[in-house]
């Protein structure tokens, strides 16, 4: 079943004997989506704001990620230790994730501890102090985090590849900002970013597990009523981000980043599909065939037959108005050219020859298992609701996803391979100098 979500959609989006998905919009514009999972003793709840690194003004680069850290550093009524102790004291997990198009603060707790999780997360999102002294402390923490990422050659090659493929566009910027961005960040600019985006009409709350939707809505309303947002006027939910100009430039050719490492990291790829593209399921099948496991073409050709690399796979990144695909391998520096040649050849083969019935069935089976197993935990289902609300504007149940994957044909795979291969390609390499 596929349900379109518009700003005023209320009530049940999906219901079967295993779960029920519902959506409520509060008068303030806050949206609440939940999936009740009978028999679960845990709940994952997420507070989403549709702001990411792509939304930062020129003088605010890195602010979104800075806020992810600072919201855990205290509110007007809780210290950083109070926030940490609240979740530690019940054996729960709390964390946050910043993306290029959204930020999410989430917690996984026992069902009986959901009221506490809603109360604390609401306090963090609505009442963050953004203390100047804490900001200076956290500046050092973030610089250490960025240094750690820059020291990881796999993270680095993925970051530089995205920047190369989406060069000149906000989506091409690092999510966490650069070290220079973090050193230059001012508290006033970060606070202005917080004030601009952290508002009732921008907030989406999603939860999955052992819960009751009506009780969740009551908890949220009660927590908001005790927050600085209690005086918020009635408002329409913020409009969903819409696809903009798809003519984002791409830097084709080869970029090499020198690092004192033993193994080269290589990605070959180019422009891919946006998040809502109807061909995204065919792309998933293509990835399963090309680089999705030990039986994939890349693994068999690059590693098993030629011994050129230990790890190799294919992947995609998708956003509202753009996407990219890549083929990755880690190899000895003197094998880079050979690896690029093989990866190029394997992509080209998919544009020319029909995929066999056996290979197509194996790819679909892999995706079927990954889809169902991925929905076994509450965190995945919570994130699925966030994506449905913020990105795609529709809820698609697992049965519909499986049916859509099953309907992909060999010609669909060849068509998407041709679509990818026809765009300019980039090669990004991190290797010893």
Write down the overall geometry.
globular
CATH-level-4 superfamily name of the largest domain: Metalloenzyme, LuxS/M16 peptidase-like
Rg, rounded, reads 23 Å
N→C terminal distance: 53 Å
Let me know the average pLDDT. Answer: 94
CATH architecture label of the largest domain: 2-Layer Sandwich
Q: What would the CATH topology of the largest domain be?
A: Cytochrome Bc1 Complex, Chain A, domain 1
Helix content: 40-55%
Low-confidence stretches: none
Q: Which structural class should the secondary elements be placed in?
A: alpha+beta
The count of β-strands is: 14
Structural domains: how many? 2
The level 1 CATH classification of the largest domain is Alpha Beta
Strand order of the largest sheet: 2-3-4-8-5-7-6
| Main sheet summary | 7 strands, mixed
Determine the number of helices (DSSP H or I, runs of at least 4 residues). 15
Please provide a written account of the structure.
The chain has 433 residues and is α+β, with helices and mostly antiparallel strands. It folds into 2 domains: 223 residues, 2-Layer Sandwich (Cytochrome Bc1 Complex, Chain A, domain 1), CATH 3.30.830; 179 residues, Cytochrome Bc1 Complex, Chain A, domain 1 (2-Layer Sandwich). Helix content is 43%, strand content 21%. A hairpin with a 4-residue loop joins strand 2 and strand 3. The protein is globular, with a radius of gyration of 23 Å. The model has no long low-confidence stretch (mean pLDDT 94).
């Amino acid at each position: 079943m596929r349900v379109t979500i518009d700003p005023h959609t209320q009530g049940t989006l999906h219901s079967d004997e295993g779960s029920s998905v519902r959506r409520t919009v509060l008068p303030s514009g806050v949206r609440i989506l939940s999936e009740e999972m009978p028999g679960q003793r845990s709940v994952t709840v997420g507070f989403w704001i549709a702001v990411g690194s792509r939304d930062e003004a020129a003088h605010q680069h890195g602010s979104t990620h800075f806020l992810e850290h600072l919201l855990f550093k205290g509110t007007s009524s809780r210290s950083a230790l109070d926030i940490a102790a609240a979740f530690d004291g019940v054996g729960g997990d709390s964390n946050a994730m910043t993306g290029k198009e959204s930020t999410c603060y989430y917690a996984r707790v026992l069902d009986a501890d959901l009221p506490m999780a809603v109360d604390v997360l609401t306090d963090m999102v609505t009442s963050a102090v953004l203390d100047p002294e804490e900001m200076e402390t956290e500046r050092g923490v973030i610089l250490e985090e960025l240094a750690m990422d820059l020291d990881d050659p796999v993270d680095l090659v993925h970051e530089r590849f995205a920047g190369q493929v989406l060069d000149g566009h906000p989506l091409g910027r690092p999510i966490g900002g650069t070290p220079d961005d973090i050193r230059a960040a001012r508290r006033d600019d970060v606070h202005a970013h917080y004030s601009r985006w952290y508002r009732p009409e921008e907030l989406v709350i999603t939860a999955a597990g052992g819960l009751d939707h009506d009780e969740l809505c009551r908890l949220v309303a009660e927590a908001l009523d005790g927050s600085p947002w209690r005086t918020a006027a009635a408002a329409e939910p913020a409009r969903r981000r819409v696809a903009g100009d798809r003519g984002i430039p791409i830097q084709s050719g080869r970029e090499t980043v020198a690092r004192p490492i033993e193994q080269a990291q290589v990605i070959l790829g180019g422009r891919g599909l946006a998040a809502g593209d109807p061909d995204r399921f065919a792309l998933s099948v293509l990835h399963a065939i090309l680089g999705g496991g030990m039986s994939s073409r890349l693994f068999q050709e690059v590693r098993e037959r030629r011994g050129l690399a230990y790890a190799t796979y294919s992947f995609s990144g998708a956003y509202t108005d753009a996407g990219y695909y890549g083929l990755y391998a880690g190899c000895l520096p003197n094998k880079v050219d050979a690896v690029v040649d093989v990866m190029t050849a394997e992509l080209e083969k998919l544009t020319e020859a029909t995929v066999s019935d056996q290979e197509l069935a194996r790819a679909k089976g892999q995706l079927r298992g990954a889809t169902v197993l991925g929905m076994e935990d509450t965190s995945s289902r919570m994130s699925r609701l966030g994506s449905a609300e913020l990105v795609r504007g529709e809820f698609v149940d697992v049965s519909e996803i499986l049916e859509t994957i099953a309907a992909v044909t060999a010609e669909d795979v060849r068509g998407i391979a041709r679509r990818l291969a026809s765009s300019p390609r980039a090669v990004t390499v991190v290797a010893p100098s």
